[in-house]
């Protein structure tokens, strides 16, 4: 896995890429997400366009970030969920938990509407 | 052991999550050699990564001197993969349901459930050497 | 790029010798998926390791931000492997003979010679993107 | 590659195992061999029983160690050369350079006979 991040319209966009399978890579995303929370950057879009696949470790990171953000008054949204990851979200019913958007712009726009 | 070792269709790695990627390269290589389609390769690779994670963390309890072995073969239009650790095993039928409301937001506990969903069968075998989880997937 | 990336039957790695082992795992996986016999797998793996060493050290001159790609396929009973770098290429026919008396004790200069001995053919192709060395080996 | 070493009858036995393909592993054997020379341990047997295969990097290490030892009044011998490596030695004519023995004991014994 690789991880790049940027800020757009005051919202943090995290773009992991490759496979999220656990091990040294997984903590990269985990650490970054928790660092955002510490930095009081609580509106986060995780852009999954470049993620080939993830396993339950990846889902666990997303869930833990989602709940941590929510408990701190923040919000995590997904963008560009690929077919493979969408299937996993359906299988695990996490599709009912995450707000997902077709593009990063749409995800960012949805924060403003509140 | 401090490196992956290949013997025929088996790869053995030290019990460390750093070696997840090594197992993935070998297994994805074999599957491509079989001519498996890309979507199925991803499903199998995801499942193997779950089982290797479990073998390292639960089976071998993170003891890096222990070994995890992954074997793969194809017979009768079906792919069969066995993931072995040196631990005491578990019953895949007795795992809490991760899609029950009270578990939905838990960080862990989805691995075997995902493997069961993606593969055709998941079985565990215990011996005095350790535990082997065997998964199969038909190529149709 | 900082990790091996697989696309179909191609693996691309950052231009570092640390990734020799990654390429080997993937290529040995594919060859086992093809059902190749163990002795031939070793000959091909040795040859690929020579070409990846050269692609990293000579082709990409150790610049880690460059990429080395290795593709493999099987057609008409023959295995074909292409190793690409971003360098200016070379002529495999113009390499000093490593078994000449004056070269016998040299530390380097045996790689391409060994590949030629083990494989059926070795060809280089140059484009504006870089150099590709293509080797083939019949399965008989 | 992995490398173990021991001393038997005053002779150093180096036992690499796995594949010798270059990269971080190769320098392991290289460093060890040159350390032996510095420590004035100049009679060395390289036991190849556990080496699955090597490429020209491996041969280069053996040659450089062989010549360095010889230039310092020492000697390097091989033991348990597997078929795969024997073929490479034949192809590269290095079979005419290295003294090879069927076992470590035989290689060690051969030093005494001088
Ligand atoms: N190889 C194994 N050895 C021992 N116990 C295991 C093994 N694999 C799974 N388990 C048990 O099954 C449980 C569920 O595994 P899983 O569904 O992968 O979720 P997680 O690993 O996230 O807890 C684990 O918590 C563990 O108790
Ligand atoms: N991919 C490459 N790009 C550029 N030059 C190469 C490449 N591969 C080989 N060469 C050239 O061919 C020579 C011989 O290569 P080889 O037989 O593998 O021996 P060595 O790499 O030990 O020198 C190299 O020294 C280099 O000059």
Q: What would you note in describing this structure?
A:
The complex is a heterotetramer, with 2 copies of chain A (114 residues) and 2 copies of chain B (140 residues). With 114 residues, chain A is of the alpha/beta class. Chain A has a single domain, classed as Transcription Regulator spoIIAA, CATH 3.30.750.24. Chain A is 43% helix and 30% strand. Chain A is built from 4 helices and 6 strands, in the order E-E-H-E-E-H-E-H-E-H. In chain A, strands 1, 2, 3, 4, 5 and 6 form a 6-stranded mixed sheet that branches. The longest helix of chain A is centred in the middle third of the chain and has 16 residues. Chain A starts with a strand and ends with a helix. The mean pLDDT of chain A is 93. Chain B is of the alpha+beta class. Chain B has one domain: Histidine kinase-like ATPase, C-terminal domain (Heat Shock Protein 90), CATH 3.30.565. Chain B starts with a strand and ends with a strand. Classes of the chains: A alpha/beta (114), B alpha+beta (140). The structure holds adenosine-5'-diphosphate (2 copies). One adenosine-5'-diphosphate (ADP) binds next to helix 2 and helix 3 of chain C.
């Amino acid at each position: 896995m690789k991880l790049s991040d940027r800020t757009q319209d005051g919202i943090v966009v995290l773009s992991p890429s490759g496979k999220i399978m656990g091990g040294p890579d997984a903590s990269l995303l985990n650490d970054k997400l928790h660092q955002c929370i510490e930095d009081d950057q609580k509106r986060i879009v995780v852009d999954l366009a470049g993620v080939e696949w993830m396993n339950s470790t990846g889902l666990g990171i997303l869930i833990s970030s989602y709940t941590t953000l929510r408990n701190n008054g923040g919000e995590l949204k997904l963008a560009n969920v690929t077919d493979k990851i969408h299937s996993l979200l359906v299988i695990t019913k996490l599709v009912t938990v995450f707000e997902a958007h077709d593009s990063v712009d749409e995800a960012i726009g949805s924060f403003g509407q509140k | 052991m401090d490196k992956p070792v290949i013997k025929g269709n088996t790869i053995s790695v030290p019990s460390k999550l750093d070696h997840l990627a090594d197992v993935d390269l070998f297994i994805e290589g074999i599957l491509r050699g079989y001519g498996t389609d890309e979507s199925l390769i991803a499903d199998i690779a995801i499942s193997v990564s779950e089982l290797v994670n479990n073998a390292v963390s639960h089976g071998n309890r993170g003891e890096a001197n222990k070994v995890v072995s992954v074997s793969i073969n194809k017979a009768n239009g079906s792919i069969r993969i066995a993931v072995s650790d040196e631990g005491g095993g578990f019953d895949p039928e007795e795992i809490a349901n991760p899609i029950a409301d009270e578990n939905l937001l838990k960080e862990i506990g989805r691995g075997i459930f995902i493997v069961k969903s993606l593969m055709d069968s998941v079985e565990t075998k215990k011996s005095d050497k350790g535990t082997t989880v065997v998964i199969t997937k038909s190529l149709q």
